[in-house]
Amino acid sequence: MVTAQSQFDLYENANIHRGMYDLSNQATKKFENARTQTARFLGCNNADTIAFTQGTTASINIVAQSFLAPRLQVGDNIVTTIMEHHANFIPWQMLAKKYQIELRIAPMNKDGDLDLIELKSLIDHKTQLLAVSHVSNTLGTIHPLDEITRLAKNKEIPILIDAAQSACHFEIGVDSLNCDFLTFSGHKMFGPFGVGILQVSEKYLGDMIPFNFGGGIIKDVQIEKTSFRNFPHNLDAGTPNVSGVIGLAAALKLISDIGKSDMESHLNNLTLFALDQLPQVPGIEIIGNPKKRIGIISFNLKNIHPHDIASFLNKDGIALRAGMHCTQPLLRSMGLQATARISFSIYNKEEEINKLILSLKELINFWS
Amino acid sequence: MTKQELQQLYKCEILPENEKPYHFQKSLEASFSIEAYNAICGDKYTLYFDISEGQISSVYFYGIGCALSKASISIMCKNMENLNPENIINLSKKFISGMNPEHPSKPINKKIQLLQKLKDFNGRGDCIKLGWEAVKNHFENNEV
User: Fold for domain B3-141?
Assistant: First the structure.
């Protein structure tokens, strides 16, 4: 990824879709190849359904402003879940407030599994969108995407999937899944920061209207009026993050070369090993016990705040996130103020989990 | 800061203050209260101030947070009693400024200097400053 980006920045740097010279044509070709490659990565036959964005948060806000806002009427509702990252929660909350519509929140059970019966009951003919993550960034719960998508499709409700935690190591297959919006970020899959994608189903491509205006998205500009290009070229006014997109494409190639199923299997093994070993730490509380989880485990230690845990483990070379993980509604619903969170990647090993456990035991001894 | 230095500081200063914090209880009869909240990590305290003849006569606090934020607020409460609002603002500013890694710490007293030793403790500055920032903002923006 770094090499691909550096190559572009050092030797191939030019703007796209506007130059008549070789360097620009080459940059355009690389950028559009990245789009094709992203489509293939997602099991999608139509590369023109892929827009490059600044990341998952930006993508969700684009859906909120470009697709959803123009169609909302008083009495409508949006359905999401208590388990969402703020990025897949606040944009809907803001729309609900502005357009006087209802935001419906599907709960989870005490184990951290989404309550699908309740979710189903919240969707009705006034629902304008169902927005749900694939994997919880706090509990690691894997939501049953096929089942959830079916719930939405049975009532012809558009569905958005936040795949920020899952696109890296799950074969999602957007065409077969039949979701309407799917998004992920580069930085969670070995790609650059500040770049991501939004995939939109063919059904709703025509409903993605520009809302951020400027050059690069237009067909024709007259003093009286402007006409715009079609999705995905109508969203990214101005100069896109060409270098970032090229870096993202390199990251997707890396993941494909390793194999998503191998990655999923490795993360699954690490998760199971950690869940098996962590209970030997005195006073540990593993947060949630969902039926299916992967890659992420939140926990607390008796009498030691997650920030203090993270600070001390940092001194042993262990990087943990501590806090609310941008999921305040979820933590509040569980009566928690904060957690420490372990998240695994393909480069982690079982030895590192053993080291983590030793560090936690040492910290507990020190604290007492 | 090495792990040993960190352990030493916690063992000698932070943990005792965390385990037996000064005036750690609700004071519902207080003259006024201030909320100190860190939305990133969820640390949340209420600081209770009693004022008498233009001076802060007592400061209590209660809430949930990490050892650092609790120890820092505990030390702060002790140091704010018997000060007038102007001196409280000055003390808060001096402390917060001293927590800036770019600024030299200004001598206040031994306990506070120990807290300020943690200013290079990556990522924890907000924990240490939480109560101080809340107090400074309140006293600067409200008639006491």
Answer: Sufe protein. Chain: A (3.90.1010)
